[in-house]
Amino acid sequence: MTDQTIDTLPQEERPTWPAIVKGFRCKCPNCGKGKLLHSYLKVNDTCANCGQELFHHRADDGPAYLTILLVGHLLAPALHVTYVGLRPSPWAMAIGFSIACVALSLFLLPRLKGAVVGFQWARKMHGFDDSK
Prior knowledge:
Blueprint: H1 3-8, H2 16-24, H3 62-86, H4 90-122
């Protein structure tokens, strides 16, 4: 075979949604069993279960932007409904929604980082392509 025919052969497909779900569960996007993170936001270099290299990821600021987007879209309507329906004191709303905002952000951030790494793995981005 020539080099040109090797480049045109179909590569193994990696399903995107299962990889995103595995990443959201903070598991390896390849096997779904090994841990993706070894501390709050640090991605393991390789999966302890299947040996998949994970150091290629380029999650950078994407998970933080997604966290802000989701938390804002969840808490803004809740803030409006609470204010209109219950009319709590301003201090009660400020304290309650501040705690909710911080808790939801801390819960979502590592999961969204895992989802971004899973997406990158499934789409063979940033060095996750085995053919090179």
